[in-house]
Structures are given as C-alpha cells and as structure tokens.
Amino acid sequence: MILVACPTHQVKEYCFQQWIDNIKNLTYSDYEILVVDNSPDDSYVNKWDKQVPMIHLPNQDQDPQRMGRRICESMAVIQKHFLAGNYTHWMNIEADVIPPKNVIETMLRYSGGDADWVSHCYPATPTPTLMHGIGCSLLSRKLMTDFDWSDKTIADDDPAVECWNWVQKKACYKTVELWYVMDVKHLK
C-alpha cells in the first residue's frame, strides 16, 4: 500500500479542490490519502476534511520566514503515520502540484520499483524553469525509516534541499530523477 500525502496551508486554498479531485482519482489500486495542515487555526481542516483525511497541527509559527519549520513539522507527522502503517512508499504530492492519474505506476516503472527516492520535475510557474525535489516524489520505506523529518537542524532551510543533501551524503540510497516523462502541472 502507498500513502499519498502532503503538508498544506490555507494559502493553497485556491488549488486544493483541484488537488483533491486529482488525488482521489489516481489509477493506482492500493493507496490511502493523508493531508497535514499547518494553518493558523483549524478552519481550513474543517472546510476540507470531509473530502480527504486531514490532521491540523495547532500552534504553528506563521512567520513566513519559518515556513520550512512548519513544512518539516507537517512532514514529521506524515512520516510517523507512514511508519506506523503497512505502507511500502510515501507518494508526496504538494497541494499545488497536479500529476497525471497514473503517476504512481509511472514512477514505479521508471525506477525499477526499488528506488528510495523518485522525483519528477515540473514547471516552476511562472518562471520558464523546472523544479524538482520533493514536490512530486515517491519515497521508500527504507529512506523514511532512516531520515528524520523532526530533526530541528533542517527546519529553517528548504526541507527538500535538506533531505536531498542528507541523502547525497549517505550515498546508500538509489535515487531517480524523471525529466519530461509526465505532464505534471504546477498551479500558481
């Protein structure tokens, strides 16, 4: 079973219904959904939790300079849920990223099924560049057992960069970056 999950915040409300509609219609046959909200209060969760399972993290520092900390704390909650369950992979899809419905099957196929981190690049709207990292990534149980999202030393920088740097230093994880394999939309 695969856990499809993401952290979110009320600033993503403009695209959250589109994300929900997409995620609920993935073609992979065995997955569950979890969203962790780090908004100032629980009004965002109260609006959306009838459509997808959501957890609200109370008392989050809303300073935009510490957004990375909120994301890491949300990722730590997802990680704890993931490790407590019978999941083989965590499919992280950010709330403003819309992959094709067969994203999980495609990532498993291109990675040979044994990669620890499969990342797909997508447009960095509104710039003409491409983003890659954790926004549309399939993460293995091995990687999520070893990496610690609650580590406070990573919380003040870009969480995806910190995780990637950690993986690179360890040099024991198979990583695959997919470029131009799927049409992944980035909503802005």
Task: Summarize, please.
This protein is an alpha/beta fold.
Structure in words:
The chain has a single domain (2-186), classed as Spore Coat Polysaccharide Biosynthesis Protein SpsA, Chain A (Alpha-Beta Complex), CATH 3.90.550.10. The chain is built from six helices and eleven strands. The chain has helices at 13-23, 43-48, 67-84, 103-111, 141-146, 159-170, and strands at residues 2-8, 31-37, 54-56, 89-93, 97-98, 117-120, 122-123, 130-131, 136-140, 175-178, 185-186. It has 188 residues and is of the alpha/beta class. A seven-stranded mixed beta sheet has the order 3-2-1-4-9-6-10, sandwiched between helices. The two termini are 31 Å apart. The longest helix is centred in the middle third of the chain and has 18 residues, at 67-84.
Give the overall shape. Answer: globular
The total count of helices amounts to 6
Our estimate of the beta-strand percent is: 15-25%
CATH architecture type: Alpha-Beta Complex
* Order of the strands making up the biggest sheet: 3-2-1-4-9-6-10
CA radius of gyration: 15 Å
Mean pLDDT comes to 90
Q: Which H/E pattern describes the elements?
A: EHEHEHEEHEEEEHHEE
- The percent range for helix content is 25-40%
Q: Largest sheet, if any?
A: 7 strands, mixed
